[in-house]
Hints:
The protein has helices at 2-11, 22-26, 48-58, 73-81, 94-126, 130-140, 145-152, 156-170, 175-184, and strands spanning 37-40, 64-68, 86-89. The chain is mostly helical and 195 residues long.
Amino acid sequence: xxxxxxxxxxxxxxxxxxxxxxxxxxxxxxxxxxxxxxxxxxxxxxxxxxxxxxxxxxxxxxxxxxxxxxxxxxxxxxxxxxxxxxxxxxxxxxxxxxxxxxxxxxxxxxxxxxxxxxxxxxxxxxxxxxxxxxxxxxxxxxxxxxxxxxxxxxxxxxxxxxxxxxxxxxxxxxxxxxxxxxxxxxxxxxxxxxx
Length: 195
């Protein structure tokens, strides 16, 4: 079955890796591109569901497509609630598996892009000075330049300069865009001042 799936995946131009055990997969060096795992429920040493749980515990996010000849509804619900992309019962159509693989690869590609975008955003935020971070927090909380100046003990002109630096360094075209960035960074909107 493992070789048949391997050959099927490669027949549509995708790269495939096969593993005899869960441990072999866990010791494998991940590639840079999108990937997914086609995983049988019943495996020697560790079940597919146990591997899914272990991946989740270690923070490895890999879209999983489960296949089984011994599945039941509670098992499929458990797998899907834990993040599996699909749960296919043997025998299944080749096209159903290929469709699930394409969906999983898209999901992993989207997730990788979101993670890369967040890392980029975090890098821009960390490039701000401490004062610029403070001003950013106050700007996204809705404060006006005059209010920010009073809160940080600076002139309004100085606040305008810091605000300009924040907008430039964060690559924000508007305050609304800066607020969205702050939300993605999970910055508190009321940090840095009191009522």
